[in-house]
Amino acid sequence: MSDTVLHEIEQALHGVLAHPDVADLWSKGRLVKTPEAAVGFAAVTPAKVPAHPAPADRTAPKKQART
Hints:
Elements (H helix, E strand, L loop, with lengths): L2 H16 L1 H8 L40
């Protein structure tokens, strides 16, 4: 890949991390152009941080594959 392409990929990923609207487009496969350069990240307050999901139950026996 050329340096230009690598720069555009980096810029797109920074935009996804910095801007929720860009992240939404990215997750839907609708990001059609490289977003503007991300200058900073929005502040995240503790109220905005999602709770950790409950751990998966690892004690259940695994199903055996059919032969």
